[in-house]
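Researcher: Structure for this, please.
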Amino acid sequence: MKTVDYLAEIKKAHGIESDYALAKLLGTSRAAVSRYRRKQETFSDATALKVAELLGIPSGRVLVDMQIQRAHTPQQRAAWREILERISSTAAVILIVLGSLTKPGEALANQSATGPAVDFYNGPEIYIMRIIGLILALASLVQASS
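Model: Predicted structure, token format:
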């Protein structure tokens, strides 16, 4: 994502109308926002961290996006994109692993009691196999990244 895209996302997410209000939220000047819009400047690392916080996204994503914009050659951009892909794929695996640590049957416990629920996927054997599969997937990703 480019600097101007992040600006638009922040304005949308926070219901901001003016660049002045956007500058205040970012803790920067109106002139800096104007330079971002004219593509004369990218976010500093400190501003990139603030942007990530405001949008609730990983800070590494914004930092790497700024490096991609600052890169002077196609090779530099390609290297930064590769780093971003690795960060994204690793984060995806971590989220999958964390999400799978909740037993499927726990969701059924919160449902209304309309009769006995049959949960074929809540046996301990299935749960353990899911965990082992996810650990193996994570291990292969880490090995591929090395």
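Researcher: Any notable elements?
Model: The helical segments are 3-14, 19-26, 30-37, 45-55, 59-70, 74-100, 104-109, 124-145. The chain has two domains: 1-70, 88-107+120-146.
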